[in-house]
Design a protein that fits this description.
Helix content: over 70%
Number of strands: 2
Largest sheet: 2 strands, antiparallel
Number of domains: 2
Distance between the termini: 82 Å
Structural class: mainly alpha
Shape: globular
Number of helices: 7
Strand order of the largest sheet: 1-2
Radius of gyration: 24 Å
Order of helices and strands: HHHHHEEHH
């Protein structure tokens, strides 16, 4: 019995020690990521934050920081993925919704910008002129509108819980622009039908 108790005690100490070491490592990785973010090295910050998540996937702040770093690196889908996970861990941390709205608008803009650069060029061999047609598919428009609708909801949710936000006017302007964008796409599609 004493031997079994001693083995259990040793295992308990080992588990507690491992947990403490993981917490220290997670904190160090998060601190280093913060330093990289302050320097503008978002790729290095994201790498440290992902390593932190690999050690402990229950720290909602790490997902928030990863989302913010990804937004700053213009990697909006990565930001959305991180923020969604963070929201699932702590849905009452309302900064997630602000950042999610920013990421959704960024991704919506990227979809349209990328579609504009898909060029269908036809050359007139005699004159040397090249005609470039920008192609934005209905799928691109739909995906962009869905993202903007999500952004509106997330930004409104943020404002609902932070009505005195210092960025209130900016957020309201982002909501207004997204609503106008969706309305313009819907009107254009109705006219084209």
């Amino acid at each position: 019995m004493k031997k079994a108790l001693m083995i259990v005690s040793i295992l308990l100490v080992a588990v507690i020690s491992t947990a403490c070491i993981n917490n220290i490592a997670v904190q160090e990785l998060n601190n280093k990521a913060s330093e990289y973010m302050q320097k503008g090295d978002y790729e290095a910050a994201m790498s440290r934050l992902q390593a932190s998540i690999d050690l402990d996937s229950t720290v909602y702040q790490t997902y928030y920081n990863l989302g913010v770093a990804a937004i700053n690196a213009n990697q909006y889908q990565k930001a959305i993925d991180a923020l969604e996970t963070g929201i699932s861990l702590k849905p009452d941390f309302y900064e997630f919704y602000y950042s999610m709205g920013i990421a959704q608008i960024g991704l919506a803009d990227d979809i349209i910008d990328e579609a504009k650069f898909e060029e269908n060029a036809s050359a007139d061999t005699e004159s040397g002129n090249v005609e470039i047609k920008h192609i934005i598919t209905d799928e691109d428009k739909l995906q962009s509108c869905v993202l903007r609708e999500g952004a509106i909801k997330n930004l409104q949710k943020y404002l609902q819980h932070n009505p005195n936000s210092k960025d209130k006017e900016l957020i309201e302007e982002m909501i207004k622009q997204s609503e106008e964008y969706i309305s313009a796409i819907e009107k254009k599609d109705v006219v084209n039908q």
